[in-house]
Branched-chain-amino-acid aminotransferase (Texcoconibacillus texcoconensis), 367 residues
Amino acid sequence: MTLQTIAFEKREQLKQKPNSDQLGFGKYFTDHMFLMDYDEQKDWHNPRIVPYQSISVDPSAMIFHYGQTVFEGLKAYRTEDDQILLFRPENNMKRLNQSSKRMSIPEIDEEEVLHYLQQLIAIEQDWVPSAEGTSLYIRPVVIATDPNLSVEPSKTYTFMIILSPVGSYYPQGIKPVSIRVEQQYTRAVKGGTGTAKTAANYSGAYKAQEKATEQGLSQVLWLDGIEKKYIEEVGSMNVFFKIDGEVITPELNGSILEGITRKSTIELLNHWGIPVKEQKISMAELHAYYHNGKLEEAFGTGTAAVISPIGELIWENEKLVINEGQIGEVAKKLYDTITGIQTGKVKDRYGWTVEAASKTMNTSPSL
Ligand SMILES: *Cc1c(COP(=O)(O)O)cnc(C)c1O
């Protein structure tokens, strides 16, 4: 890794920080942000930390017209002894590059960018909230900036990292959610862009989400786009089912996003000796297990919620009530363990946490 000198322009008047009970998700942004540019001659260059501000992009910039963009999502957590931890962040850097490859965007140096992120968090460490369930959400994003309407990959890009203190996903305690099985719309198909965190996958899902919201349901269960039979994901989370003592999650099939919480869940279940399988599972099979009394638990996994238990599945006109609408034992243990490791309350036996910034961290001379 060759670290480039990173410039730092400090904000003069720091912002007032919101109270931790009004944080919500992605509403407030910290004092500074990270930026870096790409062009064909200089590759990725000019890494800098500047006051959080609007950026100037040409109206013809390719991002606006053809959606050439990728993003990531991870969190920094404050421990009781005021350490700031990241959870498996090297996986996010790797996935950012996988998304970029899919979208014909030049890759970043994973180690270098993680180092820049750590410097940004060191500067913004007072923004990492400490109340139960809160964290600092980290949003890296790359956009195509060529002022050019040709339908082809951009030759210039901007990489940004913005930070947002976020509230607890479960301010009222974990409550299982009701989910609508979507029959009409598709999130992604094999060969498409479902494996990449790229904008259109999310805006393309709003239509299905609207239908769920209309029915008072919180999210969508996505089926495969070809046969509309096999279960893929739930909302923007991966999905797991406990069936007759065994945990099943849909196998990575070329349209499912490979979650880091999914991976951690599978690894924990393996450590605990709970059988876990990655395989195809259809909605019809799940329905049959339900009626045989074998469907014991269902839950989603993702950075935002960590574990989101599913209490009800609405499929056609039937309502499947899972585990009497209560959080299951395995989901609970996973939630407690993963959030415990993230916040330093549970010993990290797996080497998953990385210190983001400590009060004593030396900043480079340029800072
Ligand atoms: C980000 C995301 C997930 C979860 O990934 P994590 O790394 O666990 O946060 C799952 N599905 C989709 C579609 C996603 O965008």
Observations:
- Residues 177-342 form a domain with the D-amino Acid Aminotransferase; Chain A, domain 2 fold (CATH 3.20.10.10).
